Amino acid sequence: MMRLTALVCGLLLLATPLVGAAQTPDSLPQDPDAVLIEELVVTAREIGPAWWRVSDGDSTVYVMGVPSVIPKGSGWDASVLERRLEGANRVILPFNNASVNLLTAPGAVVSLVRLRSSSPFEESLGEPLRARFVAARTQAGQGADRYKTRNGMAAALLLVSDYRDAARLTAADPAKTIGRMAAARGIRVEAKTYDAAPLLAAVVRTPAEAQRACVLEALAAVEAGPGSAQAAARAWAWGQVRDALGGERSYERCIAAAPGAADLDARLKADQTAAIVAALRQPGHSIAVVQLRPLLAQGGVLDRLGALGYEIRTPAED
């Protein structure tokens, strides 16, 4: 039986930015954050990961951009972070958690029932797609019964989640580490949890052609291996922003096909922007952690803050 947490991770924890677009049977929409604001994509002057500075009078929020996924145990220089934690008002972590609440639990259960099947997903596939799926889930260390679903998107998201676990890739860090460091210093830590029920319902409603495209995208990601994520993480640790943006984007492109994706994307970015604006109302400084592409894309968090009139300085200026 598929775990709710695994599907939720596939929908939100591992893929924050979402948009809607048309797709053909064997393709997915363009990366939702493909268009970047080039003047923000710079190499950091200071050692370690890159920081952007958002200011308003006597208040500043230091924003660390982070990859959507990095190898577990990745090393990075935290000296700038430790310095900025001193005297910080708050630390804002990425808004990418999901859970089922009591009011929406019945709907989530209905969605899970609709996603389940009595037979493994691979039995619904013809060759050579079936052989590729079997090889991929074997590489992820999972048996056929793990994917008892009739829904291609659910199977694909679960497959990539399992593969990332097997490849020791995580979407939890570095935010989890930063949150722990802040809490140890008694600094207020902010995060946001979204309702998982609508996310599960979106998977159920995804058109068949988009489900197939998502399966193909997931297989390509597993077959390619963790090399691009590893290279992006190394670049991120050295403040090399452009190269840090080169990690694989299978989840983001896959989820872009889900119904309601554009609305969720707008909500996530608006919420992250609003949290930074609230921090800027308090004199002193705070820290925010935002995934790199939603941070730097057109319509992203920094673009929204700039449109509100806040001063933004890049890592090259800091």
Which word captures the global form? elongated
Q: Largest beta sheet: what is the strand line-up? A: 7-4-9-2-1-10
- Total discrete domains: 1
User: What is the rounded Rg?
Assistant: 20 Å
Task: Write a structural description.
- With about 325 residues, the protein is of the alpha/beta class.
- It has one domain (about 5-315).
- The protein has helices at about 5-15, 80-85, 105-115, 130-140, 150-165, 175-185, 195-205, 210-225, 225-235, 240-245, 250-255, 260-280, 290-295, 300-305, and strands at about 50-55, 60-65, 70, 90, 95-100, 170, 190, 195, 285-290, 310-315.
Provide tags for this entry:
318 residues; alpha/beta; six-stranded mixed beta sheet; two-stranded antiparallel ribbon; 13% strand
In a few lines, what is going on in this structure?
With 318 residues, the protein is α/β, with parallel strands linked by helices. The protein has helices at 4-13, 79-85, 105-115, 129-139, 152-166, 175-184, 197-205, 208-224, 227-237, 241-244, 250-255, 261-280, 292-296, 301-307; strands at residues 51-56, 59-66, 70-71, 90-92, 97-99, 169-170, 188-190, 193-195, 284-291, 311-313. Helix 3 runs parallel beside helix 7 (197-205).
